[in-house]
Sequence to fold (398 residues):
Amino acid sequence: MMKRSNRTENILAIITLVTLVIAAVIGFNRSLSDITDHFQALLPGMDRYEKTGFETYAAFKQGSDQPAGYISVKKSDGFGGPLKVAVSVDPDGTVVNAVVVEHRETPSWFEKVMKSPLLRSMKGKSYKDPFEIDGDVDGITGATYTTRAVIQSIKEASRETALNELNLPKLDQKPAEFQLGYPELVLVLLLMTGVFGIKYTSGKTKKRLRWLLMLSGLVVIGFILNHPLTLVDINKFLMGYWPDLHYQLYWYLLIFGVLLIFLTTNNNIYCYTVCPFGAAQECMAAFGKAKNFHSKKYHDVFKWLRRGILWMAVLIALIFRNPGISSFEVYSTLFSLSGTNREVLFLSIVLLFSLVVKRPWCKYLCPVPAFEDYLRWIKSRVKRAYKKTVHKSGMKPV
Fold:
C-alpha cells in the first residue's frame, strides 16, 4: 500500500513538472502589448509616428518634418514582476504623458495606484528632476513596489529620450545603493532566532520563544511591512522575475533565506515561527481554545486539494506571465485593513474557523506547505540519484 502511494505521488509530481514547463513555454511565447494603441493618448493631434529605435518613436505634426515629441517604453520591477510604461516627452525633455502598457501586479494594488494621482503628477516633470519618492514625488501607502516601478520607468524613459533623441546634456547619476534597513534586519533576525529556537531550546522556553517570534512576525512582517511569503513570491521565483537586488533586498532574503534554511535543516522555520498569518490564526485559536483537528481521511483529501490549488494557480500564472493573477490568499486583506467585500468575507470565515480549529488556513489551503511538499520530493529524488551515483562509482559519500 505504501509503495503504491509513493508510486502515485511520483507520477503526479512528474506530471506536475511537465505541465508547468509546458505552461511556461506557452506563456513565454504569448504576444506582448502593442503600444501603438496608446499613441494618441500619449501625444494627441499627431499626423504620423516613426520608429527610431527599440520601442522608441518620433511623433510628427501634419506638414512638419521636425518631431513634435517622442514616445519611449521602459520597464522596471514591480511587486509582481516587470512593469512597462510608455512615456511621451516634448522637445525640451519634459514628460507629456505616461501610460502603463503592461504589468503583472496584484489587481487590487494596481488599481489603487491607477486611481491615485501618481501618473497625473508625472506630467510636466523634466528629465532633470530627481524622481524620488517622498522627495519630488509622493509615495502611495501599501503599494511601494508598484509606485517605484512606475516612477523608475518614467525617469529612465525621459532621460534616455533626452540623451539619445534630443541630444540634451547628460545628467550625472549616482550609482544605485543597496536599500538595507530595519525590514531586512528584522527578517534575518526572526529567521535566525527561529533556527536557534528549534535546535537549542525545549519545553516552556521553546514555547515562549516561538510565541515571541510569531507575535513579532505578526506585527512587523504583517501589519508594518505587509510582506509575508505569498504565492506571488513563489510565482516570481519560478518565472525568473527576480527584482533589482538594490531595491528589493528584502525579497531575496525572504525567498532564499526560507529556502536555504529548509534545504539545510529540513525544517519549515517560516511557517512554524515567523508567518504573520499563522500567528493571527494561533491568536484566534488561543482566544477560542481551539483544538487540533486531525483525521487521516480528511487530512489526505485536503493535502491533495491544497496541492491541486497550488498547481492550478502556478499554471495560470505561467501561462499569462503574471505572478499575481492567480493569487487567492487573504493575507493582504488583513494586514492592509482593506479589501473587497468578497475578500473580507473570506478572511472573516477563516478567522472565525480559527476559533475552533488551529491554523485552518495553513492546514487546508495555504500554498506554501504544498510547495514545501514538492521541494521535499525533489530533494529526495536528488539524494537518491546521488546515492546511486556514489554506489556505482565506488566513491565514499560526502
Residues 2-28 form the longest helix (27 residues). Residues 2-26+179-393 form one domain.
